[in-house]
UniProtKB/TrEMBL annotation:
<feature type="domain" description="ParB-like N-terminal">
    <location>
        <begin position="79"/>
        <end position="178"/>
    </location>
</feature>
<dbReference type="GO" id="GO:0007059">
    <property type="term" value="P:chromosome segregation"/>
</dbReference>
<dbReference type="InterPro" id="IPR003115">
    <property type="entry name" value="ParB_N"/>
</dbReference>
<dbReference type="GO" id="GO:0005694">
    <property type="term" value="C:chromosome"/>
</dbReference>
<dbReference type="InterPro" id="IPR050336">
    <property type="entry name" value="Chromosome_partition/occlusion"/>
</dbReference>
<feature type="region of interest" description="Disordered">
    <location>
        <begin position="1"/>
        <end position="39"/>
    </location>
</feature>
<protein>
    <submittedName>
        <fullName>Replication protein</fullName>
    </submittedName>
</protein>
<dbReference type="Pfam" id="PF02195">
    <property type="entry name" value="ParB_N"/>
</dbReference>
<dbReference type="InterPro" id="IPR036086">
    <property type="entry name" value="ParB/Sulfiredoxin_sf"/>
</dbReference>
Amino acid sequence: MSKRRIFDIGFPGDTPPVAEPAVPAGTEAPSRRGPMASAISENAEALRERAELEARIRQENDSLAHEFVRLRQLGLVVDLIPLDRIRADEITRDRSAERDEELDELKESIREIGLSNPIRVVQRGEGYELVQGFRRLTAYRELLAETGDAAYATIPAGLVPPGEGIELLYRRMVDENLVRRDISFAEMAELARAYVRDPECPAGSLDEAIKTLFASANRQKRIYIRNFAMLLDAIGEELAHAPAMPRALGLSLWKRVEKEPGFVNRLARRLRAEPERDAERELSLLRVLADTPEAAPATGGEVKPRKPGAKTTLRVAHGAQIAQCTASDGRVELRLPRDFSAIDRLRLEKAVAAFFAALDQ
């Protein structure tokens, strides 16, 4: 049986057939997809892209969460905390019960430019305990009371990591106070006394408390703080202006307390005789009792002769700051962390004139 051969016969007018493109060996010609297959493929691609995007978002959120925890542990997270949720009584402050005269300047600064340095708090239950920033917190409370402005109802606060013991809370407050050049030995001593009295204090003695709180201070300075703390233990209740006491006067008083058993009673009687005394008057009385070279008579009488070249040094409280004064023959020098050149010349002249007028009374 013979095979039949099939031939393509072209007729006149027929369009010649288009040759199919050659497909390389080992590959398949592209297949045509219907609308349903294309939709399924596009949906799968979109789902894959969405899954990749969600994975990147989760990774970024995890990274941000870890960074937030790290910053919070460092106490660098700042939030707006309602004033009525902040307490300031867990740790003893070195602040006088008297109103800070420079608080008005701080309030004016807050009105004009806001609070540039947030306070620091630690969470305690549903509220917060103040660690640093007593003056700033007080300023906000007064501004809220005076203006009723809701802007002062909350205050920027750095969140100290929860779980810190009483030692770290005191250390944070002490470190902030040591930045102040005007902090007195009496204030530092009072912080140490308050710390050792705290039921949660791990220090077993005053010496341990001072060594812990003032670890960055040199040995001699810690000795001075200890002597002031012992002095306050003996006569602290009789003093109305302890922060104004210069170092030399405090050390002289402590020597008298150590050597003379009846000295504390004599000092107490003399101070109680003038309950309304100001800081300058209290220092004058203490100098007489301590019999220091710069002592002046408490109530008139003869002035002790002064040695040639002798100097009188004293410290006077001025709001939250302490002014240091050195007086000698023909010279009076006042030191205070303030730019006196910025004061109006007329006001400065009046102040100096008032100073000399008070000396001549």
